[in-house]
Design a protein that fits this description.
This protein is mainly α. The protein contains 28 helices and two strands. The radius of gyration is 24 Å and the shape is globular. The relative contact order is 0.19.
Length: 636
């Protein structure tokens, strides 16, 4: 370990301030891209391309200092602190974390009409301290061509802004505490691979000038990806330039039953996806693309059998059950260390040592309990029933726990659950008849927060601890910086969201409408418990358990349970082929060249990722400066 990194611990004042300097522009860009233009969507990815771009800029700028005045150069720990600050701020500014929730705060006040009767259904239950109903404030918020900066508007939004910022900050800090509890088990004992930390770690190594930035294969990969994106970007703006097609839908050739039932069947070749998949363990690569084909087979076999069940094969419900199964397996495998932690927390004899942890285990456990309690009390004060709130957050934290496990072990470019989150599960189990209109009204802002669950802070926090462990950083300082960055990132997101709404009018308004339309349907047309939902979720749960048992008992069983929910997620249809390509290349490299050739080839694939991330970010910045949408290298 480098002495300077070890001595300074990485988390220095200058590194934190540099990170904070990047936060406003990145948050503003995220809101502009995702909510104003509906393009790029960086926070739906497993790794944020704009964070990598900023780290690349700082790392390159730091190279001359390392060569000429090394005592003034940023250490690896400092570079990673900047990156972690960016990760934290960007994830809490995301499409499915803050932005969706903020879109619901004025929905009833503006869209209530005599026809939809929202004033009667929701109006009397809306908490005034969390929403805005004043038409004089909402008119230009939804119509645009105005400015946030009037005392009337700021006063109206200030109280909801403060309360929701505190709520989301508590939510994120609670997951920091959970990550402290599981950190040692997953990072040091099980030694999970954390594929998504490879690129930022290699970019910031103390010998990066020799080992990374002077690697010829890295720049070959960079040039291939960058060249494709530059040409396609020019074609997007000026049709005279040729474009390089990156995908084709084979499904257009399958028009007869039962083959037509599989729908879209894309063969997509995205350089960044091939590069990111290369860092994933071979058995997980294999499982992901093969299980994607198995998902398609379910559609085909259902059509061949003449099944006419609405929603078959209940993909989203199976995925939800699979994530619950992943959480159950992870808890069972870590049951002994967790028991030792609990013994230490209550003051009994334990072999667990927490002196090197980001915080004491007692603090982490108490923080988790206090955090969940605060979230439940907040929800109850907003009008939600206590039992609904308790089960909502238990399900939510179980899902994000399994998300974090998947990211630590698999490191996919994306993951998610489509419209099968905590609220849907509770309605499926209980039916909506027994849930009050007041509870549904209070739950409406949580709907856009959990309907997809693509970006949640939890896995990024644990990956930050993994980077800190590898670079010898001071995690006791780091978690406090992460907590402060969370608060700042959420507050800045709210500011950017309000400012852009008053400028453009009603950006993302459909998300708030979607939340209240769903709640209205459950209130006015109550549904009974959904047996199909429950059976499908149980199947997904059991599939994960069965595959886990098979992997533990039989060496020849190569299917990995983590691949099942990822392969079924609807966006994965554009990533299965890059996984297949990366698997085939990696298998050949390991078979004929061994680990030595794999390590030699690795920079080429990191170059593919870096090339697309740098040029993709530049196209986004050009679009922001010109107020015109530009080429988006992502395919979902």
């Amino acid at each position: 370990m480098n002495n300077r990194t070890d001595k300074r611990g990485g988390v220095t004042l200058r590194s934190v301030l540099i990170g904070f300097a990047f936060v406003p522009v990145n948050v503003y860009l995220v809101v502009q891209w995702e909510t104003v233009w509906g393009a790029q969507y960086p926070t739906t990815m497993g790794i944020f391309f704009n964070a990598i771009f900023c780290l690349f800029l700082v790392a390159v700028f730091n190279l001359p200092f390392k060569k000429l005045v090394p005592e003034k150069a940023l250490s690896q720990g400092e570079l990673l602190t900047i990156y972690i600050v960016l990760l934290t701020a960007i994830t809490v500014s995301g499409h499915d974390f803050t932005q969706g929730l903020f879109c619901s705060l004025g929905t009833v006040g503006w869209f209530a009409t005599p026809e939809n009767e929202w004033a009667a259904i929701f109006g009397k239950y809306l908490p005034e301290w969390l929403t805005v109903s004043d038409h004089s404030v909402l008119r230009e918020f939804y119509e645009g061509e105005s400015s946030l900066y009037t005392s009337h508007y700021i006063k109206a939004w200030l109280e909801p802004m403060i309360w929701w910022t505190l709520f989301l900050t508590v939510l994120a800090v609670t997951t920091i505490c959970i990550n402290v509890i599981i950190r040692k088990q997953w990072i040091e004992r099980e030694k999970l691979t954390y594929p998504l930390v490879q690129l930022p770690y290699e970019m910031t190594r103390e010998d990066a000038l020799q080992s990374f930035f002077k690697n010829r294969l890295l720049w070959i990969g960079f040039g291939i990806a960058a060249g494709i994106d530059i040409l396609n970007g020019l074609n997007y703006l000026y049709g005279m330039f040729p474009a390089i097609p990156l995908g084709y839908d084979l499904g257009t050739h399958f028009t007869d039953r039962p083959w037509s039932a599989m729908g879209s069947f894309r063969v997509q070749v995205n350089p960044y996806a091939i590069g990111l998949a290369f860092a994933i363990p071979l058995d997980l690569q294999f499982s992901c693309w093969l299980l994607f084909l198995i998902w398609k087979a379910q559609w085909i076999m259902g059509s061949a059998a003449g099944l006419n069940l609405p929603g078959y094969p209940f993909v989203d419900q199976q995925i939800l059950g699979a994530y619950l199964g992943i959480a159950a397996v992870a808890l069972w495998m870590g049951r002994r260390p967790l028991w030792q932690i609990m013994m230490k927390v209550i003051g009994l004899r334990s072999d667990i040592d927490d002196s090197g942890e980001p915080m004491r285990y007692r603090t982490a456990v108490l923080g988790t309990l206090l955090g969940i309690t605060s979230l439940v009390l907040f929800s109850c004060r907003a009008g939600m029933s206590a039992l609904f709130a308790i089960f909502f957050f238990l399900i939510y934290f179980t899902i994000v726990f399994s998300y974090t496990r998947m990211r630590a072990e698999l490191g996919p470019p994306l993951q998610g659950i489509h419209y099968a989150g905590p609220i849907q599960l509770m309605v499926a189990v209980l039916g909506s008849r027994g849930i009050s209109a007041q509870t549904f009204t209070a739950a409406a802002p949580y709907w856009p927060l959990t309907k997809e669950l693509r970006n949640t802070p939890t896995p990024f926090q644990l990956e930050s601890f993994k980077l800190a462990e590898r670079a010898g950083m001071d995690t006791r300082k780091l978690w406090k910086v992460m907590a402060l960055t969370t608060f700042i990132g959420i507050f800045v997101t709210f500011w950017a969201f309000l400012q852009l709404n008053y400028k453009w009018g009603g950006i993302g308004a459909w998300r708030g409408n979607s939340a209240y339309i769903t709640m209205e349907r459950w209130i006015t047309n109550p549904v009974e418990p959904d047996s199909s939902f429950i059976v499908a979720a149980a199947f997904g749960f059991l599939f994960v358990l069965l595959n886990t048992v098979m992997r533990l008992r039989f060496m020849w069983w190569h299917l990995h349970p983590l691949g099942y929910p990822l392969a079924g997620y609807y966006h994965f249809e554009k990533l299965w082929f890059p996984f297949f390509i990366s698997w085939a290349v990696k298998m050949m490299i390991l078979k004929y060249g061994g680990i030595k050739l794999y390590r030699k080839a690795f920079p080429l694939f990191m170059g593919l990722v870096l090339g697309e991330f740098v040029i993709g970010s530049l196209w986004g910045i050009i679009g922001l400066l010109t107020s015109k949408p530009t080429y988006a290298f992502k395919s979902w």
